[in-house]
Design goal:
This protein has a domain of about 210 residues: FAD/NAD(P)-binding domain (3-Layer(bba) Sandwich). About 35% of the residues lie in helices and about 25% in strands. A seven-stranded mixed β-sheet has the order 5-4-13-14-15-12-16, sandwiched between helices. Strand 4 and strand 5 form a beta hairpin. It is globular, with a radius of gyration of 21 Å. It starts with 6 loop residues before the first strand and ends in a 22-residue tail after the last helix. The protein binds flavin-adenine dinucleotide (FAD). The site of flavin-adenine dinucleotide has 34 residues, from helix 1, strand 2, strand 3, helix 9 and helix 10. One of its GO terms (molecular function) is monooxygenase activity.
Length: about 400
């Protein structure tokens, strides 16, 4: 057995990339991170860090800072098709999280905190990306879009759901993408509704509109989600067509705020449109290249577990590389040890069956009944899937 060398290139600097960089540095690797965006991408919607992932950030020493950044939403209010109140609950009662332990932070705050933990120890190349990977017996020759050329021992794709690393190695996304029956748009809009640290969610069968007030800020996150049995392959991938698709799905909604949200979506300069889906792959590595986070096993926002899987996956991959001297054994151990955790979390949602987004009148009635019951019943226990992985002690530096 030959030991694999220690120069690693990570593609993507969001959640999985910097977390992996931190742990690989701890294991004695020389790490370079390349990020397509010109700088660390800030802002964005709130994300959850739960269960096993809390232990990852604790071991990184960033838990206190993230506790300070915790959003601590006060309530989640559900409205019926006419805008009437169905129930108002604490967010933990709905998400299956553990109140007082699990965290909800702005995605940008989590990315910044991970980056701050590693930026002095790792080389970051912003505004560039991998153009060509050429693997050979002794490493991988990389040509970057900027024209820069380097050779690394290992490459890790942490470049998200629509990973270019995955596509270049394993083929088109369609092979691995499991559509979950919904399309969604997120955007910011002015807080003209007087909301503060709370979420307001309107539902009609197959449609949901949510307003998310992260703080007492002036801006809200707007979220429009609708059921569509098949992916919108016929809709051109441009913002104009996507805006039209969303607007037509919500035409005639019974609550006037939804119409105002559709108008705000049309004006928004930060519209993000996508389909809800998962990435499911038979293998997460090939040769000297591996995938981590959404690139390998995106669970979809419907599970609320994307960031947690990215954090736990980064830890497990780095630990496998630190434990096993050669990459084939390390990549095999990474898959073997992490896959059951990923499978449990991906199984939290099924096509068209997300708890918060019922697609039929009957399913919506049942959901509303369950929500009202939550008002009188004791809080549900935490979801086992969130904590189903016990982290091994981190292997000593090689
Ligand atoms: C609406 C919405 C709500 C969500 N809510 C939650 C939630 O409540 N809880 C939760 O845990 N998760 C949530 N998620 C998911 C979560 O944001 C992701 O699962 C998580 O960020 C995964 O991190 P990642 O680092 O693997 O990928 P990403 O965060 O997607 O990062 C990929 C990075 O790679 C970069 N990149 C892309 N292509 C290239 C390239 N070719 N070369 C170099 N860099 C590249 C990108 O710029 C980006 O910085 C939500 C997602 C959405 C869309």
């Amino acid at each position: 057995m030959t030991r694999t060398g220690r120069d690693v290139l990570i593609s993507g600097a969001s959640i999985a990339g910097p977390a992996l960089a931190y742990w690989l540095h701890r294991a004695g690797y020389a790490v370079t991170v390349v990020e397509k965006a010109g700088a660390l991408r800030g802002g964005g919607y709130p994300v959850d860090i739960r269960g096993t992932a809390i232990e990852v950030v604790r071991r990184m020493g960033i838990l206190p800072g993230l506790r300070d950044a915790h959003i601590d939403s006060r309530r989640l209010t559900f409205l019926d098709a006419d805008g009437g109140k169905v129930a108002s609950l604490t967010p933990g009662a709905v998400s299956g999280g553990v109140e007082g332990q699990d965290l909800e932070v702005r995605r940008g705050d989590l990315a910044a905190s991970l980056y701050a933990a590693v930026r002095d120890d790792v080389e970051f190349l912003f505004g560039d990306f991998v153009d060509v990977l050429d693997e050979h017996e002794n490493g991988v020759d990389v040509t970057f879009r900027s024209g820069r050329r380097r050779t690394f021992d290992l490459i890790v794709g942490a470049d998200g759901m629509h990973s270019r690393t995955r596509e270049s190695l394993f083929g088109p996304e369609e092979r691995f993408h499991r559509y979950l029956g919904y399309c969604f748009a997120i955007f910011t809009l002015p807080n003209t509704f007087g909301l503060s640290r709370e979420v307001m969610m309107w539902n009609s069968p197959g449609k949901a509109a949510a307003l998310y007030a992260v703080g007492d800020d002036d801006d809200l996150h707007g979220f429009l989600n609708f059921h569509r049995p098949g992916p919108p392959l016929d809709v051109p991938r441009n913002p104009g067509a996507q805006r039209d698709l969303v607007a037509s799905a919500f035409a005639g909604a019974g609550w006037e705020v939804v119409a105002a949200m559709v108008d705000a979506m049309r004006d928004a300069d930060d519209l993000f449109f996508d389909t809800a889906g998962q990435i499911r792959m038979p293998h997460w590595s090939r040769g000297r290249v591996a995938l981590v986070g959404d690139a390998a096993y995106a669970p979809s926002f419907l599970t609320g577990q994307g960031s947690s899987l990215a954090l736990a996956g980064a830890y497990m991959l780095a630990n496998s590389l630190a434990t096993h001297g050669d990459h084939p054994a390390a990549f095999a151990a990474y898959e073997r040890d992490l896959r059951p955790f990923v499978a449990m979390n991906q199984a939290l949602v099924d096509n068209g069956a997300a708890t918060l987004f019922p697609t039929t009148e009957r399913a919506l009635e049942q959901r509303d009944r369950r929500l009202r019951d939550l008002l009188t019943l004791p809080a549900a226990p935490a979801r086992p899937a969130h904590s189903a992985l016990t982290l091994p002690e981190f292997a000593p530096t090689r």
